[in-house]
Write a structure and sequence with these properties.
By secondary structure, the chain is mainly alpha-helical. The protein is built from six helices and no strands. It is globular, with a radius of gyration of 19 Å.
Length: about 150
């Protein structure tokens, strides 16, 4: 009988994740995602202290990440082209585009300025709507994959 892997072996990062090419994909995607979020921030300024652009980026990013990861999960493993797309678009672009750290910071700024209701009206819906947006992205990609597999278009 083979003993189970040691705890330290279970928590190691696969070497391919740290390969220079993989890191470059994440870096490039992250830079583009951050620039896109900044552009969205310029288009959608905050209104009455409510960070509209951050909320929009988090919702759109959650939806697109669900869509992307579900689409990539169909038709093969996570190697080659699929892996590169996941690193570039999922980890990189969506990681830079979405910013749940800004959610935490903005929420605390609202709380600290005694704007408790606006803080709650921002933080709770962001998390709940983000989960719903991700589910919608997954559902859309799964439906599309089912139609494609069934021959309908």
């Amino acid at each position: 009988m083979t003993p189970p892997p040691s705890r330290s072996a279970q928590n190691t990062v696969p070497p391919s994740s740290l390969a220079p090419g993989s890191l470059l994909l994440v870096f490039l995607g992250g830079a583009a995602g951050t620039a896109a979020r900044q552009g969205l921030g310029l288009l959608l300024p905050s209104a009455a202290g409510f960070p509209i652009a951050i909320f929009a980026a988090n919702m759109l990013g959650a939806f697109l990440l669900g869509l992307l990861l579900e689409a990539l999960s169909h038709g093969g493993g996570s190697e080659g082209r699929r892996r590169r797309l996941r690193l570039l678009l999922g980890t990189g672009f969506m990681g830079g585009f979405t910013t749940y750290s800004a959610l935490a910071t903005d929420s605390m700024l609202l709380f600290s300025s005694s704007a408790v209701l606006p803080a709650l009206a921002y933080a709770l819906p962001t998390v709940i709507c983000g989960a719903l947006a991700t589910w919608c992205g997954i559902a859309l990609a799964a439906r599309r994959a089912a139609r494609t597999a069934g021959g309908a278009r």
